[in-house]
Amino acid sequence: MKATRPRLSMAALVLAGMAAFALAGHIAATRFIHDQQMRQLHELTEVVLHRSELAVDFATASLDDLAGRGLATCAPASLQAIRLHVYQRSAVKDVRLVNSDGSVICSAYSETLEFDKGWVDRADMLASRDSKLMLFRVEQFGGDALGVLRDIGDKKALVAILGINSSLFDIMPAELRAHGEVLLALKNGARLGEFALEADKALTHAIDFEKSSTRYPLRVIIRIDKSVLSTWNSQAYWPTMTVALALGVLFGILLSRARRMEGPVADLDRALTRGEFRPYFQPIFDLRTREIRGCEILARWLREDGTVVPPMNFIPLAESSGRIEAMTWQLLHQALTDLQPQLKADKDFKLSFNVVPRHILGAGFVETLRSTVAAARVSARQIMIEVTERDELDDLTRAAAVVGELRDYGFRVAIDDVGVGHSGLSRLKGLGANTIKIDKFFVDTITADASTTTIVEMLVALARDFHMTVVAEGIETEEQVRALVSCGVGEGQGYLVAAPLPFAGFCELMASQRTAAAISAQAAGAVLVA
Ligand code: C2E
Ligand code: CA
Ligand code: CA
């Protein structure tokens, strides 16, 4: 059970880590892929624009060359030279000489004039940024073209007619071809050329990328179907997710390790919050009559999984981590609540509880004790505070002052584990306690070892001198009871009568003792009557 719990919680943390990282990985991967797609599409738009600008630059260079060679005339020789020039440059379809208003004077290929659907006036042409060129659409039957006009002096101009061929648009990656369109237009909206889908495949949910030239009145638009973006260039998705999941596993393992490292103290805090520290009750009885005179409260940790943890497994940590005070008050409060009716019914019944020296010497101990006991409507006389002398009581003077204060309020104080601790017996006198508790160590050996009997006799004599009572711990046999009684020990506790019991068990024990007492009283009465 204990081993499966950490494994389960580790599995839960690993799963949680994977889920969190998978989510983060998914968000990061989709974001990354989306950003990459946007960047690529912007770049594609730029490529088309750049190619268009290059075509215009090329046309300009051609016109400059022709003008420089004095060919801006309609003389047959000039026209022939221009035709050769055009022939050598596939992008330029034709060159025309025009008037300053844009009207055509002559064409290198005069027959092409028949293919014109229209020819714009200079007023409808758009200037380049440096105003040296005018751009306009040439509508032709074989498809539209781009006219680039360059003034030659004040009266004339040369126009290069550029074919907007598919190479300009041939930039779409194969995956996007069936889902995208590319359009080149003038700034006034006149379309110059496009790579478009067939009418029945028209884009319904498209995203547009647009870019305008800073040098020429040109604009490029790329339109992409949104649906294709979920698959295009998404190769990075699964590698990213795999890395994210691996990181999630690693994170989960590290987290569960970290939790285990901060574990014990955090466990104590959780147990305190949940009230998992419970008082168990061990009877303290009169060694001669076996009558139960009180009980000692012993802490048990009742864990969620049903295990009962003994105090030695958590008291030292509670003490070193500063949780012992809260734990002690929680236990005392619970024990007082449970035992209140018993304490009220029998004013001689005493409740003993264990307090570490550090706690007693700490600020506010006496005050809190008084208010806790008063709130339970229990008399201070019925409360015994057990302080171990196993650990050295560093500040004996201060300890004695606190013991004195406690006694002034009516509380009783017992020195626990007497005989095995650091203090010499004479120091015990200085503390001013009411009771000494002889450690189980002496009870274990009292029947076998004569020197133990001597020590116990000494302790009893000393206690009598100091007006203290004596309780022996860990009594398991009748033989031990006899030996302790002959040494003069008055009270004891041990498995012989009962181990520490949960409250219900302790109530049953008390009830059976009352029944036994009633029967023996009846029997005694019967003997007397007889
Ligand atoms: P302790 O105060 O000396 O308590 C007596 C211990 O002896 C108890 O162990 C009790 O169960 C055990 N015992 C009693 N009779 C017999 C017996 O006949 N045979 C055997 N073998 N053992 C017997 P437990 O309950 O395990 O407590 C151990 C120690 O833990 C206690 O020693 C006490 O020092 C400490 N402790 C327990 N509860 C508390 C608490 O609430 N606060 C503090 N500060 N310490 C506590
Ligand atoms: Ca004790
Ligand atoms: Ca003890």
TrEMBL record:
It is found in: Cell membrane. Keywords: c-di-GMP, Cell membrane, Hydrolase, Membrane, Signal, Transmembrane, Transmembrane helix. It catalyses: 3',3'-c-di-GMP + H2O = 5'-phosphoguanylyl(3'->5')guanosine + H(+). The keyword Transmembrane applies. It is a multi-pass membrane protein. Residues 1-24 form the signal peptide. Residues 261-514 form the EAL domain. SMART domains: EAL (SM00052). Its EC number is 3.1.4.52. It holds the Pfam family CSS-motif. InterPro entries: CSS-motif_dom, Cyclic-di-GMP_PDE-like, EAL_dom, EAL_sf. This is cyclic-guanylate-specific phosphodiesterase.
